[in-house]
């Protein structure tokens, strides 16, 4: 492997250990590290990757970083990038399923992470400022940006708001922008293997899971666990804030209704689910890593001895992790070449202007949505510090070469000092 790829993977690892705040903040950190500092991709490419991944189900920040690896080194580097991005958070959340009895469920959010939220807002603010000159070209793009910002703020929890805004933005500028002549692009052969593999796994997992349940197979739980995670990873839009309620329904609410006819259904206590959902928000990396926690909790009672139960619990962490992230990876690798081919058509080229304006609006709306839960207007020291972290983070990102991980460590240290 070339030294440049080793350096890239090292930066992916640093990103995975310091990427707080969810997909929007992850995108902002990629803008700082992968675009501004390392020049792995251009700002326009990162914007396009973000737009494409918002249109697809699955873990959007995972898909974006996998595409960056794919662009640099093809499929092998994309796979390594995915693994390095996913593993740190997944290992921690899987370990949490073993250590849950040691966690104080009454106080799972420590002061150590007190300034992570304002830091994430600072990253988003930086990303908005960097993206603005690329996305706003005329009056129409201004209108799209403003409307997308307002809709994102008020409907942030809706799973379909992001793809709907991106599609609407693309349609708008395709209708209003007639400056370019129509271009006939050469049709390229599409590689269907990733899509067929995605569909085959979806169907086979579903059939095996139902058969195992009906015939009461001894090891049906691992099969059921993989199927439920693969299904959720294939269908969820809106990121982790949508995935977690789906998991709550799948593992804590629904089992109560079906337990009389399926006594061996996978069930996780609601209090345990809330603990995992709280801690995953405080951890760096993809929010989808909560699947590693639920996978361990799902299989922790399998086996006759403590050793067997521990092995099955670790197997559950691995099964759920693969199940939740694999669909995102297969889908983005299938649609990425199609996206590149479609860009050759003027109808799509004209749409990119509206798509980029909508993406910027989504980032602005997300920034204000995150700020509503941060104290910045109260007349106290905490509000002053929060405001200082937001502004200071943005200024450091914009005007200095300080790496993003250093800023994260400083904010964690500030939280420790606050304790």
From TrEMBL:
Cross-referenced Pfam families: Chromate_transp (PF02417)
How does it sit in the bilayer? Answer: Multi-pass membrane protein
Keyword terms of this UniProt record? Cell membrane, Membrane, Transmembrane, Transmembrane helix
Task: Tell me yes or no: is Metal-binding among this UniProt entry's keywords.
Answer: no
Q: Where in the cell is it found?
A: Cell membrane
List the transmembrane segments.
Answer: 77-100, 112-136, 142-171, 192-209, 279-299, 311-339, 351-370, 390-418
**InterPro entries given for it?**
Chr_Tranpt_l_chain (IPR014047), Chromate_transpt (IPR003370)
Q: Which family does it belong to?
A: Belongs to the chromate ion transporter (CHR) (TC 2.A.51) family.
Provide the protein name. Chromate transporter
Specify the species. Terrimonas rubra
